[in-house]
């Protein structure tokens, strides 16, 4: 059942605790990418327009329960003031009397937007401490969760808080994420093709298992493919392999074959001795013993042609994980080619966060995707078919 929406709430004169995902990349106090902040603006604006006081809260980085000025949300408050074109009150903590007083002062001054300091400066956030959750809840009359990227964690500000403040509603970004990913999983326009890459098969076993039963084709790239190859005795040189996942890979391949599912692995690849820009490299067929002690670092041109042909017919595409070591040219060619192919799909294209966002941005095609998820880990868990605790806790 869909969660209650912020659009359904009467917010006039009410204090809204708005959990957002402002976990932005920061370098020396400068925000390098403010996408996550901008993606939250529609919910913030809606709540302000409806007369609420917005108390926004987020984590940033991994301060492990202690205040750390390098992970302060203050630069985010400054960016928000510019984006919202209004005064933003920054509270130097996220809980307790000084915060309550800062909210009261802001309201007295006619300023209805307060950003709290990093939730993870308190260890109780991640341990989902009930007293801490109740303390957060005491700051507001309603709870709105717009932090899709944090919703796969049962933390005090995503799950615990819902026990102490009601109702708990989904924000507009949360709704958008759930709709795009949910529609792809449950009602995709077919053919539905998933592209999975990246370093580790272990991160994506459940995603592969869940998607295999739903997609028309699943295309595998990246280092992940080598665990599948090795599990079938195919020579892989020194390519990245997870030896403890060989059984899992064999089992997935067996499952796909017995269910008649299309699980595609590369047929050729780019091999090199060292992963360095411009290092000597050559294209080889998969299984060629000439790989010796070299490693595979990108899908090859024949694989690209095959995958592009499958994508050309797709009407729904979900992509997570690069096809090779895309950070190091020329080993980004396979990933770039797939990014361009996904960009031309006539249908819904969903990028599942993390490195795939960097890949489509680098290929210059980010604005041609239907949806780029703000939550890497959360979108993977969603695609694996798991319940996200921060979503399950919302009022129906
Ligand atoms: P993940 O976080 O699992 O999505 O993995 C992303 C990482 O996988 C990127 O940093 C890529 O450089 C890396 N990667 C992709 N293909 C390969 C490969 N063939 N060998 C080594 N690393 C790879």
**Name of the CATH superfamily of the largest domain:** Phosphoglycerate kinase, N-terminal domain
Please, how many helices?
14
Structure classification? alpha/beta
Task: Report, as a whole number of angstroms, the end-to-end distance.
Answer: 7 Å
The residue ranges in which pLDDT falls below 50 over 5 or more consecutive positions are none
Q: Which sheet architecture does the biggest sheet show?
A: 6 strands, parallel
- How would you state the average pLDDT, rounded? 96
What is the rounded Rg? 23 Å
Quaternary arrangement of the chains shown? single chain
Small-molecule binders: adenosine monophosphate
* Broad shape: elongated
Helix coverage percent of residues?
A: 25-40%
- Provide the domain count: 2
Please provide the count of β strands.
17
Q: What would the CATH topology of the largest domain be? A: Rossmann fold
Explain what this protein looks like in three dimensions.
This protein has helices at 35-49, 74-84, 97-108, 123-126, 130-137, 172-186, 205-212, 224-231, 246-259, 301-312, 333-343, 355-362, 376-383, 389-392; strands spanning 15-19, 26-27, 30-31, 53-57, 89-90, 113-115, 142-145, 168-170, 192-196, 217-220, 263-264, 268-272, 281-285, 295-299, 316-320, 348-351, 371-372. The chain is α/β, with parallel strands linked by helices and 396 residues long. The protein folds into two domains: 6-174, Rossmann fold; 188-383, 3-Layer(aba) Sandwich (Rossmann fold). A six-stranded parallel beta sheet has the order 5-6-4-1-7-8, sandwiched between helices. It has a six-stranded parallel beta sheet with strand order 11-10-9-15-16-17, sandwiched between helices. Helix 1 (35-49) packs across helix 2 (74-84), helix 7 (205-212) runs parallel beside helix 9 and helix 7 packs across helix 13. Adenosine monophosphate (AMP) is lined by residues 198-200, 203, 222-223, 240, 296-297, 321-322, 324-327, 354-355. Adenosine monophosphate (AMP) binds at residues 198-200, 203, 222-223, 240, 296-297, 321-322, 324-327, 354-355.
